[in-house]
Amino acid sequence: MSRITVIGGTGYTGSAIVAEAAARGHQVTALSRSLPGTPTPNVDYVQGDATDEATLSAAMEGADVVVAALSPRGPLADTFRDVYRTVARLADAAGQSLYVVGGYSSLRPAPGEDRFVTDLGHIPAEHQGEPRTVAALVIEDLPATPPTLDWVFVSPALRFGSHTPGERLGRYRLGDEVAVQPQDGGEISAADYALGFVDLIEKGDHHRTQVNLGH
Questions:
Q1: How far apart are CA 211 and CA 197, in angstroms?
Q2: Out of 40-54, 99-113, 131-145, 178-192, least confident range
Q3: What is the predicted pLDDT for the residue at 102?
Q4: What's the pTM value of the predicted model, to 2 decimals?
Q5: In the chain, where are the structural domains located?
Q6: d(CA 142, CA 85)
Q7: What pLDDT score was predicted for residue 184?
Q8: Kind plus residue range of the DSSP H or E element containing 198
């Protein structure tokens, strides 16, 4: 079993990953600004600010795997990429694998085609900042890290989020940087995304690359 630290461990996606990893017997630490109303059993919850390097370092200490599941909103709206650069630097120094919860817009519709983020005209201008910021992690920031850092950027299907929670089906489809198109017209739930995410951690078959999970 692995020691896994989830940064943003009480958010929509982070809490699902925490629950899945803990259910499999992994030793899980969850860092977040606030503690959950209903904690997952056998999880060590740490309340703290991810923009503080000392807090990050303490939460990540001793981990085999670090999961970054933050969103560029609220206090992180202007510091998101800086926080992730710090997480990457600390993980690299400690020899930890880094798994990042990504976004759909960084994917491609087909091999060799531009990423969706290059044309966000269908999204109101005031909402384009978040997908562009998250996509920049896998387009610019993660590839620029030292080759000693083992990272995987895991994108979900379109319309993934608390507004479309979906149901746990106990299955998923794995793709690379080309978006997996749902076969049944449905989007992946947080529970099934977490299922695939923890499978990726346990199998350890992907390195310094982007993948995506869908139904």
A1: 10
A2: 178-192
A3: 98
A4: 0.97
A5: 3-214
A6: 8
A7: 63
A8: helix 190-203
Cβ-count burial of 143 within 10 angstroms (0-12 exposed, 13-18 middle, 19+ buried)? middle
Q: Is 30 helix (H, G, I), strand (E, B) or coil?
A: strand
Of 27, 70, 43, 17, residue with least CA distance to 192: 17
Structural Rg of the chain based on CA atoms: 16
Q: Which stretches within 24-77 are classed as H helix?
A: 53-60
Which architecture, in CATH terms, is 3-214? 3-Layer(aba) Sandwich (3.40)
Q: Which of 78, 212, 87, 96 is nearest to 157 (CA)?
A: 212
Q: State the Cα torsion 164-156-36-168 to the nearest 10°.
A: 60
Return the structure tokens found at 193.
Answer: 């995304």
Alpha carbon distances (Å) from 139 to 115, 133, 169: 10, 10, 31
DSSP code for 75: G
